[in-house]
Amino acid sequence: MSISLVAGLGNPGRDYASTRHNLGWIVIDAFTQKLGLAWKTQPQFEAEVAGWDRPGRATCYFAKPLTFMNDSGRAIGTLARFYKIPPASIVAIYDDLTIDLGLVKVSVSGSAGGHNGVASLLEHLGDGFVRYRLGIGPKDPPQMDMADFVLGKFSPEQNQFVTQQLDHYLAGLDLLLSRGAEPAMNQLNRRDQK
Fold first, then answer.
1. Tens-place pLDDT, residues 38-67
2. How far is CA 16 from the centre of its chain?
3. Tens of pLDDT along 76-133?
4. Topology at the third CATH level for domain 5-188
5. R_g (Cα) of the chain, nearest Å
6. 3-state SS, residue 109
7. How far apart are CA 82 and CA 105, in angstroms?
8. What's the pLDDT score for residue 55?
9. What is residue 132's three-state secondary structure?
10. Cα(191)–Cα(29) distance, rounded to whole angstroms?
11. How far, CA to CA in Å, does 118 sit from each of 73, 98, 122?
12. CB atoms < 10 A from the CB of 160, how many?
């Protein structure tokens, strides 16, 4: 089943722009920029939306919920119902604390794993959407509060590393959108992908 909606999870506002929790937005912004797409704020969906008219294929929508992370599902659920897009045709791009920084994993089911944005998607969409998980781990220092860590900014070294990994993130997303979840999982979920 082809992908018709790609949601980048993050928080709106300058304060959150370069936090770990906004890695989904950083990647979706870079991807849409590469395609030359323009974002439009669409209040009825509580999201910024960009449409990609692919030759010979249905339009693919990109969305950044403006509802704040913990309520992402409300915006994406409204969008999905409006365009009649089933969960299996939706990709959510988000940060994942359980994966090392720089790595990407693709999965199609599972729990929210403590991620409130994903919990909100599960609540409003149900399971079955494709997860494009961007590693931000490990938590350092380990005893640090999870919210403080994900809402913290990358260190200058980490920022540089994320910038270097951007092509890898975009190539993986391109693979997922062009070939589907199975080939993307086979290629991206290996440990030695760096």
1. 999 999 999 999 999 988 888 999 999 999
2. 15
3. 999 999 999 999 999 999 999 999 999 999 999 989 999 999 999 999 999 999 999 9
4. Rossmann fold (3.40.50)
5. 15
6. coil
7. 29
8. 82
9. strand
10. 26
11. 8, 14, 6
12. 11
| Model pLDDT, residue 140 | 87
Model-level pTM? Answer: 0.96
The first and second tokens of residue 147, run together, are 């919210």
Amino acid of residue 124:
H
Q: Is 96 exposed, middle or buried (0-12, 13-18, 19+ CB in 10 A)?
A: buried
Catalytic residue IDs: 21
Q: Residue 17 phi/psi, 5° resolution? A: -50, -50
CA 112 to chain centre: 14
Looking up tokens 């704040």, which residue turns up? Answer: 68
> What is the C-alpha to C-alpha distance for residues 144 and 125, in angstroms, rounded to an integer?
31
